[in-house]
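Design request, tokens follow.
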């Protein structure tokens, strides 16, 4: 049985795409650049805010100076609007509660900036006891670099063989592989199942309840 489940945030626990898209479009418009349809944002996100802003900018505008300016506009807006349209995926609150009832620890590893991750988790899951909640911090590589997983494991005394890493993207599956922990891809998030398979997801689930079954599976005991 697994004793720690590490979750990605965006596209895994929370459907954040509308608020992320609105914040990015706000930053683009304020800087005088074209905006994008919200439906295009699932393929822009996944590697942190700076990479998101780089992707939404025209190719000839992707300089550090411009990205830094947009980053300020983005965070100013997102800090005040991150819960406007964001919501947990169906079945996620119940899954988290069931895991904790069984004394299975839960943690978050996100490429979103750390203060936003902590604010979202506190807002949407205030009753859940988290072993660790980690977002992107300055000078720490973003996923798929496994540093964020190692940071969680430095706080939670659990062997890697007892860890399940859950996410919705190839970045997440690669993060789990590099960290040498078991991976689980979810199909309700921002990326297609084909991406999860391409990045060698060890498990793929279509409903949150299936994660509990994986965690309790006797073959991992």
């Amino acid at each position: 049985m697994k004793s720690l489940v590490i979750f990605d945030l965006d596209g895994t626990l929370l459907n954040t795409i509308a608020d992320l898209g609105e914040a990015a479009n706000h930053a683009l418009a304020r800087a005088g650049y074209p905006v994008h349809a919200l439906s295009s944002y699932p393929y822009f996100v996944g590697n942190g805010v700076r990479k998101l802003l780089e992707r939404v900018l025209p190719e000839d505008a992707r300089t550090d100076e411009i990205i830094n300016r947009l980053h300020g506009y983005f965070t100013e807006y997102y800090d005040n609007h991150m819960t406007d349209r964001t919501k947990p995926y169906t079945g996620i609150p119940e899954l988290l509660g069931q895991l904790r009832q069984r004394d299975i620890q839960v943690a978050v590893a996100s490429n979103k900036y750390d203060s936003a991750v902590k604010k979202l988790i506190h807002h949407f899951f205030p009753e859940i006891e988290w072993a660790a909640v980690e977002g992107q911090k300055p000078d720490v590589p973003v996923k798929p670099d496994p540093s964020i997983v190692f940071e969680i494991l430095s706080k939670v005394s659990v062997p890697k063989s007892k860890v399940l890493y859950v996410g919705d993207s190839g970045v997440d599956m690669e993060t789990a592989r590099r960290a040498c922990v078991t991976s689980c891809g979810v199909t309700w998030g921002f990326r297609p199942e084909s991406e999860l398979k391409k990045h060698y997801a060890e498990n793929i689930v279509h409903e949150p309840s299936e994660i509990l079954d994986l965690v309790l599976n006797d073959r991992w005991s």
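Comment from the thread starter after seeing the answer: thanks! The chain has a mean pLDDT of 96.
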